[in-house]
Write a structure and sequence with these properties.
Structural class: alpha/beta
Distance between the termini: 56 Å
Number of helices: 3
Helix content: 10-25%
Oligomer: single chain
Number of domains: 1
CATH architecture: Sandwich
CATH class: Mainly Beta
CATH superfamily: HesB-like domain
Order of helices and strands: HEEHEEEEHEEEE
CATH topology: Hypothetical Protein Aq_1857, Chain: A
Strand content: 35-45%
């Protein structure tokens, strides 16, 4: 009997451990929230999350990576901003604290824009920064 119980328990994944943050970590403008909500709905996951991460690369050493996902992952920090759930991993949180994510609908220089008070410098293309 112990063997059967062990097999049943082994297949059940534990719920991810997620911390709840607030807009002091990251904030979305109304324009960004509308765009993200529309993209999540279009992908068939209206209850999904926007992942914002900072990874190495780009002209200035660090760049933003954004992805739409079904749910938060283990150790994520979850922030609800303008009706959108945003997740940030603890390492990226060090770089994005206080940032604002905006969306500009324009042919030239349009798209998502991050206003980051931690960025010491940024490149001319606006895609990377250094802290």
């Amino acid at each position: 009997m112990a063997m059967i119980a062990g097999k049943i328990g082994a297949g059940v994944a534990a719920a991810p451990s997620v911390r709840v943050g607030d807009e002091r970590l990251i904030k979305l403008t109304a324009s960004a929230a509308t765009k993200v909500s529309g993209l999540l709905t279009k992908q068939g996951r209206p209850q999904g999350v926007l992942r914002v991460a900072v990874v190495g690369g780009g002209c200035s050493g660090l760049q933003y990576k954004m992805d739409l996902q079904d749910s938060p992952q283990n150790r994520d920090i979850l922030v609800e901003s303008a009706g959108v759930r945003v997740v940030v991993d603890p390492k990226s949180a060090l770089y994005v604290t206080g940032s604002e994510l905006d969306y500009v609908d324009a042919l030239q220089e349009g798209g998502f824009k991050v206003k980051n008070p931690n960025a010491a410098t940024s490149c001319s293309c606006g895609e990377s920064f250094s802290a």
